[in-house]
Design a protein that fits this description.
Blueprint (H helix, E strand, L loop, with lengths): L8 E5 L4 H12 L3 E6 L2 H14 L3 E6 L5 H15 L4 E4 L14 H9 L2 H18 L2 E8 L10 H20 L5 E8 L6 H7 L7 H9 L10 H11 L11 E4 L10 H20 L2
Parallel strand pairs: 1-2, 1-4, 2-3, 4-5, 5-6, 6-7
């Protein structure tokens, strides 16, 4: 099976690092015309230069705030004007956010939504008219497994990811008549560097191996996913091999399902073990 996307005009948001950067690199290797954005000008510029070296036909690197409707629409319209259309939109911008009923203000959930599923809608709404004119388009929304299977913490991520997945499926049904396919990819434990931050939150008495074992014991495949694991599925969904897949919600999780609900408990238990070790060592 040979996936040929070389003629495509592709937009990837949130492409300055992690999953977004991996997706941008994967498309670049296909020789596409690639437009990428993020809020950090230096980081997105560096990914743009790398994409050109990897084989992208042309690259547009921009600083765009996906929370701003006017800014998003102007950026996508400019890309479509320069390239004569848009074929693919990958909505990757948006981060997780923790918090629970005791710690959150309601407005914080709305703020998170504006940079996540509302941003996905905002970008899709700007790209769809260009896709409709050519009766071909692919929209991939990067979401999270917490939107499929709720966890007992992280209310903004749980609720807004669930809304994003539902919206993606709704758009997939609504736009099918225009041959615009819309799918959601729901991330499990993908190692994009955030696990280093999670590890630093632990007691210094907890070894890195202990922490990684705790985090991956709930994953049936027994490891973290890699950004390239996500990028491969994105390329497939943008190819003609996936021409009958729309309104789908696909988990990229190594088999992780309901086990995700146990992670907060395992993390808390490991933190408590580390604190107990500190007290024990302090008493010696």
């Amino acid at each position: 099976m040979h996936i040929d996307l070389s003629a495509k005009r592709v937009i990837v948001t949130g492409a300055s690092r992690g999953i977004g950067a991996a997706i941008a690199r994967a498309f670049a290797r296909e020789g596409v015309r690639l437009a990428i954005c993020a809020r950090n000008p230096e980081a997105i510029g560096a990914v743009g230069k790398e994409a050109k070296l990897l084989g992208a036909e042309s690259v547009i690197s921009s600083t765009v705030d996906v929370r701003d409707t006017v800014e998003v629409r102007a950026w996508i319209d400019k890309i479509a004007e320069e390239w004569g259309g848009v074929d693919v939109l990958v909505n990757n911008a948006g981060q997780g956010r923790g918090g629970n009923i005791d710690t959150l203000k309601p407005e914080e959930i709305l703020e998170h939504a504006n940079g996540l599923q509302v941003a996905h809608f905002r970008c899709a709404q700007a790209a769809v008219p260009h896709m409709r004119r050519q009766r071909w388009g692919r929209i991939i929304n990067i979401n999270a497994l917490a939107g499929v299977i709720p966890t007992p913490d992280g209310i903004p991520s749980v609720s807004n990811r669930a809304a994003g997945i539902a919206m993606s499926r709704s758009l997939g049904m609504a736009l099918a008549k225009d041959n615009i396919l819309v799918n959601s990819l729901n991330m499990g434990w993908i190692d994009t560097g955030q696990w280093d931050r999670h590890y630093r939150e632990m007691s210094p008495t907890i070894s890195r191996d202990e922490f990684l074992h705790m985090a991956t014991k709930v994953v049936p495949l027994g490891r973290f996913g890699k950004p390239d694991d996500v990028a491969g599925m994105v390329l497939f969904l943008c190819s003609e091999f996936a021409s009958f897949i729309t309104a789908a919600s696909i988990d990229i999780s190594g088999g992780l399902q309901g086990q995700i609900a146990y992670y907060p408990t395992l993390k808390r238990e490991l933190q408590e073990l580390g604190i107990a070790r500190e007290k024990s060592q302090g008493g010696n």
